[in-house]
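tool=predict chain=A
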Amino acid sequence: MKKVLGTYSEKTIYNRLAKAFLVLSFLTFAGFQELIAQPTADVISSGFVAAGTTLNTLTVQHTPGVNANRLMMVAISTQQQDITSVQYEGVDLEPVPNGAIINSTRARIYFYYLVNPVNPVTPPGNVTVTLDASTNRGIIMGVITFSGVDQNNPLNTFSGTTGSGTPITLNNIATAINQTVFSAYTVRDSDPSSNAGLAWNIYTGTLDQNDNIAGAGSTKTGDGVTTSVSYTVPTAREWSLGAVSIVPVVYADLGVSKTVDIDAPYAGETITFTITAINNSLTSNAPNVLVNDILPDGYIYGSHSTASGTYNGGSGEWAVGTLTAGSSAILTIEATVLGSGNYVNTATISGDVIDNTPGNNASSAYVTICQAGGTQPLFGN
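tool=predict ok
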């Protein structure tokens, strides 16, 4: 029989690139290299309160690391206690929607998350869970900070189930290629799991000590529309198991181009600017695309037309929405040319993506003013 000794067990692993948590795919499109990266488990910590010690709180030291687009995930195992709060350095974590799995009053697992956790001024940081009541059956907490995570929609749909006996299994977990599946379980009266490569694997007491809890957590690569996880334990009574897929940050090459139908108009003439927003990515959709195009003072806004999103002539913001991989959208703006002013009209594009080719994120069009009814430039005549 194996037993985790001591009051706290902590493990922190930095830059676990060798564990194949990072999947890189390079696709070439018109000279553009598209990077598709799976979220990486950068830092893993865990801790527990041993059975026989009566407490309602547990603190685990954890410093998120420095990689970009971070997400902190926390899983908490209790016997029959609910969660009052989970905090990192005084900041509340959010419960994962539907992320509380309860098997009667014997085994509970709770999932919480925090987008873009900030490193403490003086490391290490602390993650603290507070329960609604004290327990002497043990508390377990595992913490993982991932990088390369979509900061606006970091989580896929949560899944969970309960049961008894071994193995501890969950099927039909929502996932996709390049997502990372995070799972954890709580079980009553069982030695640690025999699975290899777990993020944590803890039993809080001695076997058959009446309701003491064990728990473990792990990550795996998403392999399609749905996937499954399974843990093998020597013995198992009631258990609860949950899982959620971590969504990678979107990498896409956004571009914008701008043209004008008359490049040498006379003062007072109406011209039309055409702005094209494009997602050059072969695989990644680009959400919340925004083009900024406010007319300079050499023009008076007349009207606009677009079949994609909405344009505000006052602010110059064109809210395109989502540009699917390889798609484009067009906006036309009619304006009257004034006799003087700034004629350089620039459009810029952005979105909820990481754009590793920013050189095509701006485009300008300008005109040279001619005399009324003439064809030659006004200046120098």
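DSSP finds no helices and 27 strands in the chain. The longest strand covers residues 40-49.
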